[in-house]
From TrEMBL:
PROSITE patterns: RADICAL_SAM (PS51918). The lineage of its organism: Bacteria, Pseudomonadati, Pseudomonadota, Betaproteobacteria, Burkholderiales. It comes from Polaromonas naphthalenivorans (strain CJ2). This is Coproporphyrinogen-III oxidase. One of its GO terms (molecular function) is coproporphyrinogen dehydrogenase activity. S-adenosyl-L-methionine 1 binds at residues 66, 123, 156, 340. CDD domains: Radical_SAM. SMART domains: Elp3. Gene3D superfamilies: 1.10.10.920, tm_1862 like domain. Belongs to the anaerobic coproporphyrinogen-III oxidase family. It is found in: Cytoplasm. [4Fe-4S] cluster binds at residues 72, 76, 79. Involved in the heme biosynthesis. Catalyzes the anaerobic oxidative decarboxylation of propionate groups of rings A and B of coproporphyrinogen III to yield the vinyl groups in protoporphyrinogen IX.
């Protein structure tokens, strides 16, 4: 299916929102990370790594790497990431030393020189590290892995921590993709979330990055923050479209103060209501469509030439723990505190505390504290959910051939629910396929939830953000 155009995107009625704007997962994986269990340990990861190493295609299938840098100099009140607020930059040096130990443990299982086609540095703020420390990190990874010359190497950038010289240093290290955290340009909103960064600073960095030839530049935005209004967000959108990034990630703010303590500093009376949030979303869609962006899916937009939009057009789009990806569904090695990995039919997650992370590595153990070995049913449902999240459609035959099932029998109960959604104009279902409509894209997570066996058994969803 061609990439979904934003043109003529309908606006959901209040009745649709009331009925379908529920809490639910974002499906960067299935099963979702909240289903990981502590009974899954580093020993299970070692078995999965051994299976990869001994497999016939091990050296032919590239790896993806994710490195989590947890440190930030200041606290953003909206943030739900695993981070450590500190101005003690010497902590970065210690962290790198332990990251090196973790890398060594992985290469002991995999062997040195496995090809990597995708690398992402996230956080926290990866640019908390100095240029010298980032150089050390990249040298460490290159000693252990073979970074493909045409790979995608990206880093999240806090605009407050870099200048044009630092961007040049990142380009020199091999990074070819940047993601700038902007969220909103409005000064009142920035003050309300404790993240003040002048628009001029971002404009200057974008201009410098363009001159340096970065292949893709992303800007993160959040709607639903305190002090935001549809009119104030329009001004931010206009500034973003002036910048014309290759990609835009537009996230709905999820206020979950019971889970994320920093959010308790946000004045709930200053949060926009559901109607204002929906207006921001619809106006954003119109603005991006008018500027020529392709709606990749859910919360991602890209210019037609960008690799993400191309992958969507060609049916090659994937989804992993960092969101939408152009890479095949390859094994992912997660390095650092709280990092999540995927090897074969297993998921694993590292400990979330720095003290425990260091303790595991001092013992010569992978710092894995939970994970999951996927069952056959998990794999079947993952195939369905990822097709819906990435392509917005599913030919039943593709699942039947891959997993040797009869789709209509296997998912009889789910199809019954989908017929109700069809009556509401969210999906189109027949005997051989399922298609999400333009209206349904607002609720794509809700459609995916129909196939989530774990949610069928557990109706407690307060831990998730709302769909819109």
């Amino acid at each position: 299916m061609n990439a979904l155009a934003v043109d003529c995107m309908p606006i959901p009625s209040h009745e649709l929102i009331r009925r379908f704007d529920v809490s639910g997962p974002r499906y960067t994986s299935y099963p979702t990370a909240d289903r990981f269990v502590e009974a899954f340990t580093a020993e299970h990861v070692a078995q999965a790594l051994a299976q990869r190493r001994n497999g016939a295609a091990a050296m032919l299938l590239p790896l993806s790497l994710y490195v989590h840098i947890p440190f930030c100099e200041s606290l953003c009140y909206y943030c739900a990431c695993n981070k450590i607020i500190t101005r003690h930059h010497e902590r970065g040096e210690t962290y790198l030393r332990y990251l090196s130990r973790e890398v060594d443990l992985y290469t002991a299982h995999l062997g040195v020189g496995q090809t990597v086609s995708q690398l992402h540095l996230g956080g926290g703020s990866p640019t908390f590290l100095s240029d010298g420390e980032l150089h050390e990190l990249m040298a460490m990874l290159r000693r252990s892995f073979s970074l493909a010359p045409d790979g995608e190497y990206s880093i999240e950038v806090d605009p407050r921590t870099v200048d044009s010289a630092r961007l040049a240093a990142l380009a020199g290290l091999g990074f070819n993709r940047l993601s700038f955290g902007v969220q909103d340009f409005d000064p009142a909103v920035q003050k309300a979330v404790h993240r003040v960064q002048p628009a001029e600073q971002v404009f200057s960095l974008m201009a410098a990055a363009r001159l340096m030839g970065f292949e893709s530049i992303n800007i993160d935005l959040i709607y639903g923050l305190p002090q935001q209004t549809p009119e104030s967000f329009d001004r931010t959108l206009a500034q973003v479209l002036q910048l014309r990034p290759d990609r835009i990630a537009l996230y709905a703010y999820a206020h979950l103060p019971q889970r994320f303590k920093p959010q308790r500093r946000i004045d709930v009376d200053k949060l926009p209501d559901a109607g204002a949030k929906l207006s921001m979303l619809s106006r954003s869609l119109s603005a991006f469509q008018g500027a020529g962006y392709v709606y990749v899916g859910m919360d991602h937009f890209a210019l037609p030439h960008d690799a993400l939009a191309v992958a969507k057009r060609q049916g090659r789009l994937h989804r992993n723990f960092q969101g939408y990806s152009t890479q095949p569904d390859c094994d992912l090695i997660g390095l650092g505190v709280s990092a999540i990995g995927k090897v074969g039919a297993t998921y694993s997650q590292n400990t979330k505390t720095l003290e425990e992370y260091y303790d595991y590595l001092d013992q010569g153990r992978l710092p894995v504290v939970r994970g999951l070995a996927l069952s056959r049913d998990d794999l079947v449902r993952r195939g369905v959910i990822m097709a819906l999240m990435c392509q917005g459609q599913l030919e039943f035959e593709s699942i039947e051939l891959a997993y040797l099932i009869d789709f209509n029998s296997y998912f009889a109960a789910e199809l019954e629910i989908l017929h109700g959604m069809q009556e509401q104009g969210l999906v189109e279902v027949d005997a051989t396929s399922l298609q999400i409509t333009k209206m349904g894209w607002y609720f794509v997570r809700g459609v995916a939830m129909v196939f989530d066996r774990y949610l069928q058994a557990d109706r407690t969803r307060a831990r998730f953000s709302r769909i819109i």
